[in-house]
């Protein structure tokens, strides 16, 4: 007997169409997220520390108090990001939409050290990297020059370490610190493997901030060595007890 597969085919074709549509528009997600991060929307919602739901117009009143910005367009971004679990949407009986931050969204608002996951997200979508992505297919045809170098003339590490940056903490440090500090805080609560260690080497220690956190928790670690590239450690903050070790041969993570 011939098996009726029409429903199955229809279902999988529909799923395929939806999947392709989602993939075709995928760029809207990181681009919308970058837009709300640049607008400092997470900080605006957390401004009074309460994460109280706010309408797009109320958010704009906090970030653009002199007016002139478009609440309707901000709401479009917020609605899109609500479907990716960055915001929670609260719909009132009158049809007004308000937004608060989800658990994921809260990780994008600055903490009391001025750190958050936002800096990693921003650094991974900055212009230099965005110039390299369209060239990624060329790396298949000709792998001799990596896309970032082709687009920007220098390697990613060189670009980031040589970039003029008058911040107290250059963006490449803030990007990694924003990701690593919360992780290390949790790790230090459960891992006690640093007991008895006197000298600790952090390979690829970046700004040295996680090494400092370990040394603050374990006074037995008297000497820390931040083993990183010369340009990276050259701009790293000077931390008592932490020495830098320069290594320039390339390796990948
Ligand atoms: C993902 S970051 C590490 C983040 C850091 N562990 C923290 O806790 O914040 C990778 C680091 O590896 C470093 N790195 C890359 N190539 C290296 C090399 N050849 N020698 C030493 N460090 C290198 C980079 O400069 C960068 O600081």
TrEMBL record:
GO terms for biological process: methylation. SUPFAM superfamilies: S-adenosyl-L-methionine-dependent methyltransferases, Winged helix' DNA-binding domain. Coiled coil: none annotated. GO terms for molecular function: O-methyltransferase activity; protein dimerization activity; quercetin 3-O-methyltransferase activity. Keywords: Methyltransferase, S-adenosyl-L-methionine, Transferase. Residues 21-109 form the O-methyltransferase dimerisation domain. Its EC number is 2.1.1.76. InterPro entries: COMT-like (IPR016461), COMT_C (IPR001077), COMT_dimerisation (IPR012967), SAM-dependent_MTases_sf (IPR029063), WH-like_DNA-bd_sf (IPR036388), WH_DNA-bd_sf (IPR036390). Gene3D superfamilies: Vaccinia Virus protein VP39 (3.40.50.150), Winged helix-like DNA-binding domain superfamily/Winged helix DNA-binding domain (1.10.10.10). Residues 136-238 form the O-methyltransferase C-terminal domain. This is Caffeic acid 3-O-methyltransferase. It comes from Cajanus cajan.
């Amino acid at each position: 007997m011939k098996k009726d597969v029409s429903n199955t085919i229809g279902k999988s074709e529909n799923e395929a169409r939806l999947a392709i549509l989602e993939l075709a528009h995928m760029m809207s997600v990181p681009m919308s997220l970058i837009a709300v991060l640049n607008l400092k929307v997470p900080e605006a919602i957390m401004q009074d520390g309460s994460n109280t739901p706010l309408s797009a117009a109320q958010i704009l009143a906090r970030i653009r108090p002199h007016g002139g910005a478009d609440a309707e367009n901000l709401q479009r971004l917020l609605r899109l990001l609500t479907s990716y679990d960055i915001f929670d949407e609260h719909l009132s009986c009158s049809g007004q939409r308000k937004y608060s931050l989800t658990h994921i969204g809260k990780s994008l608002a600055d903490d009391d050290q001025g750190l958050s996951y936002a800096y990693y997200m921003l650094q991974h979508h900055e212009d230099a990297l965005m110039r390299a992505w369209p060239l990624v297919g060329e790396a298949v045809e000709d792998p001799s020059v990596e896309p970032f170098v082709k687009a920007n003339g220098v390697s990613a590490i060189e670009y980031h370490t040589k970039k003029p940056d008058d911040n107290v903490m250059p963006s490449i440090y803030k990007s990694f610190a924003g990701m690593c500090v919360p992780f290390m805080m949790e790790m230090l609560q459960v891992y006690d493997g640093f007991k008895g260690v006197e000298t600790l080497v952090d390979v690829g220690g970046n700004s040295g901030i996680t090494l400092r956190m370990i040394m603050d928790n374990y006074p037995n670690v008297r000497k820390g060595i931040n083993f990183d590239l010369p340009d990276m450690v050259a701009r790293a903050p000077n931390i008592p007890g932490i020495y830098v070790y320069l290594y320039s041969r390339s390796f990948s993570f």
